[in-house]
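Annotated sample (chain length 552).
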Amino acid sequence: MEKLTLEKLKGNFILSCKRFPISIFFLLWLTVSLIYYGFDKSSDAQFFNIFYSGSAALLTCVLRLWEEEVDDLKRCRIIQGAIHVCWLAVAVYISFYCDMNQTVWNCVFALSFTIAIAFIIVPFFKENDDISLWNFTYHTFLTFILSFAVAQILMGGVMLLLESFRELFGLVLWDDAYYDVGVVCNGFIAPFLFLQLIPKHDKIHNDSVKGLPKFMYGIIHYLFIPLTTAYLITLYAYAAKIIFQWELPEGWVSWLVTALMTLMTIIIVAVYPSQFSEGHDVDKKIIKWLPMCVLPLLLLMSIGILRRISDYGITANRLYISLFNLWCYGVCIWLIVSKARRIVWIPISFTVLLLLSSVGPQNFSSLVFSSLKSHVIKGLKATKVPKLPMDIATYKEWSKHDDASMNDIISNLYYLKNQYGNKELADIADSLTLERINYFSEDKSICDIEINYLCCDNALMIPDGYKHVIPNYSYTENKVKVDGDKISFIVEYQVNGKKMKLPIEVSIKKMKSIENSKYIVPVKCSNAVLCFSSFSFSENSKKLYFYGTIFY
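Output written by the structure step:
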């Protein structure tokens, strides 16, 4: 093993700065942004600075590795410049012109995942086999873990030193010191160490077929393969059972098939070098027969998915799992036909399908949104809603109708507002109405009172004349008593193992008056003072939920 010296560390530092200067610049930008914005700030500029700097750091690293593989540097740098401009435009558009709903988050994940996969694949686009790719991926995995392990040790050491200053000398260097240390160690030092450990161009194409070390090889053979065998036996036994009983498979079987497919992919990728060396007969048989054993079981997953869609309708997640199921068929067939000689097409095909299904107007989230929204509007009109968009009074009037399709409409509306936000549904209902729509299988009511104090860190003052406290009390009751302006309910608690009851009366008018308060407002009643962190109540269903502190 080469001796590690101060001079060598200095040389690696200078080399990495020369090799990845733009990536290091973006890492500094990311670190400064994370420290500046901290915990309690939120804006479009915050998302842009964090998302763009982090993704651009990885993108510039990918482009640098690609540059080292091409001969025409002038043409390469023109393409690099165009890619940077396009990525900047994408980041600006997402940050400042898009509402951050599920569609946008799926797009962000797909684009970021694509850049990460490109980091592994780009240096090897000229290769005829995947041995060098396998060796580089294995090296990348180990160096990634090593870099972040070193950063965690450093972070722990510095935090212990800061805590020692506080405990021994009463000295606090600055506010949020622990957060800043964590950001510097994980946001800059760890990825910077990782950049230093990326092999140079002349060492990146390592075509040796040594494979995994004995320890990791043992994990594959004595843990992963027996577990995969157990999954295969279980699924084939289940297939025999449903054929014998002539029934459809449960939708849940998709999870077990997905786990089996994941294990199969890990095993085949892990033992991939074995087919290029002498011996390893067990590995070669596994590579040959495992995809053949898994392929028929994918039919269970397909039928399970179709059953879930038939029973519960289409959602973006169900479309994604359907596409994943089709991808699994393709992977198994490809491994059988090609005899697993090329594994690079596994991540490439997955990434392409993820991009096609998440980015652009044809993305699954947008398609599901358009379909469900159209279904909701048609359902509302069919059930004779008085007007669109609905306000609270209109929704209350509409929800009184007894129609079999209403639960389905409310369920879809509830899903849409949670996944895509209120703004996208402005032509169906106003924001206040959407915020207060609940969906329970037995309840079509709307919340008349809704209070939520998020991130409220103000201390609660003990009211004069009260000696006891019930902290963090959670209450849910479907039928409370309502008499005019008063909501009556009983709080049950324990004192020294003894069950106690405290009757409470709350004014509806008082609760409505503090809905828009930015801070927790103490509510005085006949027997106690209540400080609600959250409170929701529906007059129609008499359903009450609250969470808070009670003084009595």
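Annotation: The chain has a mean pLDDT of 84.
Annotation: The two ends are 70 Å apart (CA to CA).
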